[in-house]
Amino acid sequence: MEFKEFIDLAKVRQSCRSYDPDREVEAEKLDACLEAMKLSPSACNAQPYFYYIVKGDEAKNVRDLLQLGKMNSFAKDVNAFAVITEENYNLSAKLGSSVKNQDYKSIDIGISAAYFTAQATSLGLSTCIMGWFDEEKLQKYLGTKSRIRLVITIGYAKDYTIREKKRKSSDAIYKIVSEDK
């Protein structure tokens, strides 16, 4: 897909819950998503996150840890995942976070995930950002003690149909404050 304006990309990016299990995600496309993620802004350029890309036969290990009860049953058809851990701030971001009482890490992780998924969409991939998983078992599988914040499913949609977006009204989510009337 080619997008001339970001709004065109935003209109078609959506969470996918029906993947084609027979289509593998190309390494070049995953690399491009990771490159976009690296370019995302973060407080004091701290980039307080780490991405584990799990694909191929290894993806089964992540699939099993996402499907808790009836939750995330669609993950059974996903063959690539990005598991995002929270890492340490640099000194200036740590100081700023403390002084301003702001959780910049969560903000930065969210922005990086948005860049990753936007790039994926621009390459014809589908994604779903997930927060429901067995964190302890994922940590053990990945060999990390870092907190796992998000898992992104990555693949090709079984049926790529753009759904109508249901969003709050503009008045409910923003107000422009200006002397211009």
TrEMBL record:
<feature type="domain" description="Nitroreductase">
    <location>
        <begin position="11"/>
        <end position="156"/>
    </location>
</feature>
<dbReference type="GO" id="GO:0008752">
    <property type="term" value="F:FMN reductase [NAD(P)H] activity"/>
</dbReference>
<dbReference type="InterPro" id="IPR000415">
    <property type="entry name" value="Nitroreductase-like"/>
</dbReference>
<comment type="similarity">
    <text>Belongs to the nitroreductase family.</text>
</comment>
<dbReference type="InterPro" id="IPR029479">
    <property type="entry name" value="Nitroreductase"/>
</dbReference>
<keyword id="KW-0560">Oxidoreductase</keyword>
<dbReference type="Pfam" id="PF00881">
    <property type="entry name" value="Nitroreductase"/>
</dbReference>
<protein>
    <submittedName>
        <fullName>FMN reductase [NAD(P)H]</fullName>
        <ecNumber>1.5.1.39</ecNumber>
    </submittedName>
</protein>
